[in-house]
Amino acid sequence: MAMTHTLTPTAELATDTDDVARLVTPDGERIADPELDRWVADIDAAALRSLYRDMVLLRRIDTEGVALQRQGQLALWPPCQGQEASQIGTARGLRQDDFAFPSYREVGVAFVRGAQPADYVLAWRGEEHSTYNPYDINTATPQIIIGAQSLHAVGYAMGIQRDGTDQVAAAYFGDGASSQGDVNEAMVFASSYGAPVVFVCTNNQWAISEPVTVQAKFPIAGRAPGFGIPSMRVDGNDVLACLAAMRWAVDNARKGNGPAFIEAVTYRMGPHTTSDDPTRYRDKEEVERWKGRDPLARIEALLRAQGEFDDEFAQGVAADADALAAEVRAAAQGAVTREPITVLDNVYAEPHSGLDEQRAWFGAYLDGFAAEEAAR
């Protein structure tokens, strides 16, 4: 299932949404795909409703995160609206004993893997011991350094080989990270050693303000075969296609056939983070066009067409989302934040003069804010 392209490289090829595998159209029509269908043959209406519920809850976590940041409860938040299908679909394709290596935007992966409400927000407050134990949910802590988690995933996968088990590692990164040396080095190692790892590239069209057309003139999935890695390019707003693609990739790795690569073509509806203003570099027409491809709306349309979506179901999902949002908010507002100066408390096992100088400088800096406040 390797990608091949013989056309002259153009920016249009990198952003083309027709050249993707999909099972559900933006209008909610279920269509056939000879490569994907067999991987989701077991997905009935109940399973589809579960995927829809997951996406609704993820969107609500994301909405709450943005609101908490705007209210001063969080320092930063990386929104994932529009990317619910790529995160939920691929994460649901993993086994619980597989190990995921997400970037900072994969809130949905952490959600599927079993993260708790506090796990989504406390790190963005800068709290001590603010994230989950990776081994509790077999998911590494979110990586801020762009693309670094791809190397970690391959290293873990090579460890799996030496343990002689059939687990799989999964590395999540964005289109911008595909230009990083770490990602390319990870693919070299994975291919050379046949490591059981799946690379999931979420092509959300923008690396902060840099469009994917600057990163790539061909679809990103077309790079993987050059490393000897089979790849698939799927509609990242189609949760069913994303689930099928991940099952294909995981099966390939679990059988000892080495790594696989998925490019999920989607769109980041919000800013890169809450410190970003996307109106400075994106056209309104582009955003409106992608609104019509909403991953939640298309599954709702499919379920309604099947007679499997009614008011009772919608109300139940909404209530679950409200309850989860309340827990996330309570976790953020209930956090007991230590004084800023304590950031230096446990840096070294033994005190030393350099640390004393830093403490004195930082203390004076903090005192300056107190003086300004008293003068008002």
Structural class by SSE content: alpha/beta
Largest sheet: 5 strands, parallel
Query: Strand order, biggest sheet?
Result: 1-2-3-7-6
Write down the secondary-structure element order: HHHEHHHHEHEEEHEHEHHHH
Q: How much of the residues is beta strand, in percent?
A: 5-15%
Summarize model confidence as the mean pLDDT.
94
- C-alpha termini separation: 66 Å
Number of strands: 7
Shape: globular
Spans of at least 5 consecutive residues with low confidence: 1-7
The number of helical segments is 14
Radius of gyration: 22 Å
Helical amount: 40-55%
Mind explaining what this structure looks like?
Helices cover 45% and strands 8% of the residues. It has helices at residues 11-15, 45-70, 84-91, 107-113, 117-121, 134-137, 148-163, 181-193, 212-215, 239-254, 284-291, 295-305, 311-333, 353-375; strands at 99-101, 169-174, 197-203, 206-207, 210-211, 231-235, 260-265. With 376 residues, it is α/β, with parallel strands linked by helices. Helix 2 crosses helix 4, helix 2 packs antiparallel against helix 12 (295-305) and helix 7 packs parallel to helix 8. The longest helix is centred in the first third of the chain and has 26 residues, at 45-70. Mean pLDDT is 94; it is low at 1-7. The chain starts with 10 loop residues before the first helix and ends with a helix. It has 14 helices and seven strands.
